Amino acid sequence: MGHVYVTARVGDPLRTRVREVRTLVDTGATYPCLPEDLARELGLRPEFKTSAVLTDGRAVDAWYTTIYLEVLGRGDLVPARVFSVEEPLLGAFALEALGLAVDPSTGEVKPTRSFIARA
């Protein structure tokens, strides 16, 4: 299927700073992951440090934070991890929260159910 990317709107929980970013859809990742510079730009508040296990098995320290995330017009507050990552990742938790999934036959992100925005 190859890599799947979507355009997402990412911001602080109050949406005072929101930026449109190209994100890699990583169904193997649990949470959205943001680069540290993007988190600083958005004024995200690090809530606590946690450990994140990467696909190669390494554990890294990551900040836990809450972000506003919108994909295909569906937006909500979701937990995210902030650490030294090359590009923003959209994980399975965020896809599920927004009622989205990757269609393996087309490689597109599509709605899985109706959605009512909570944020």
UniProtKB/TrEMBL annotation:
GO terms (BP aspect): proteolysis
Q: Which Pfam family is one of those matched by this entry?
A: Asp_protease_2
Question: Which SUPFAM superfamilies has this protein been placed in?
Answer: Acid proteases
The family database entries (InterPro entries) matched by this protein are listed as: Peptidase_aspartic_dom_sf
Coiled-coil annotated spans: none
Q: Which residues form the signal peptide?
A: none
Q: Which organism is it from?
A: Infirmifilum lucidum
Q: Which domain of life is it from?
A: Archaea
- What does UniProt list as this organism's lineage? Archaea, Thermoproteota, Thermoprotei, Thermofilales, Thermofilaceae
Record keyword Metal-binding present: no
Q: What name does UniProt use for this protein? A: Aspartyl protease family protein
Q: GO terms for molecular function, please?
A: peptidase activity
Q: Which UniProt keywords apply?
A: Hydrolase, Protease
Asked if Protease is a keyword of the record, the answer is: yes
